[in-house]
From TrEMBL:
Gene Ontology MF terms: calcium ion binding
InterPro entries associated with the record: EF-hand-dom_pair, EF_Hand_1_Ca_BS, EF_hand_dom
Secretion signal, residue range per the UniProt entry: 1-15
Residues covered by the EF-hand domain: 98-133
Source organism superkingdom: Eukaryota
Protein keywords: Calcium, Signal
Protein name stated in the entry: EF-hand domain-containing protein
Any matching Pfam family: EF-hand_5
Organism: Magallana gigas
Amino acid sequence: MKFSLPLLCVGIVFAANHHGLTLDQISTMIIGNMDKNADGNITVEEIDTEFVTNYDHDGDGCVTMHEFTHQWNLDYHDDHHASEGMFHHLDITTDGCLKKDDLGMHHMAMDTDNDNTVTGAEFTAWLHHVHPDRFGHGGR
């Protein structure tokens, strides 16, 4: 019994992000999922497809926090707290429903050189700025 409790505690700590991914690794995975035409630029449509179309499990045009955190954790192995933080950051209208309108504003924030395209480097810099674990440790 004395051995079980410490083992359980260690298991809980490492389960937060059992893959141990860094933010740069998570960013690379997200970019790979978004940039379907592999041109190195991320469009508003590609962001919408990744975070609204692919995350809207019931097809009602609204990604709930439950849908988002489930899919984000599945795809990027982040912890629940970080997934919820990302949802709240992306949900600009704070209505609990992530929609295409929310993501258009983020595309503008990502596009730091105002050329109407978002590069992988711009997306990674944005993710480092907005992710709940800004220090690059993923969900750890």
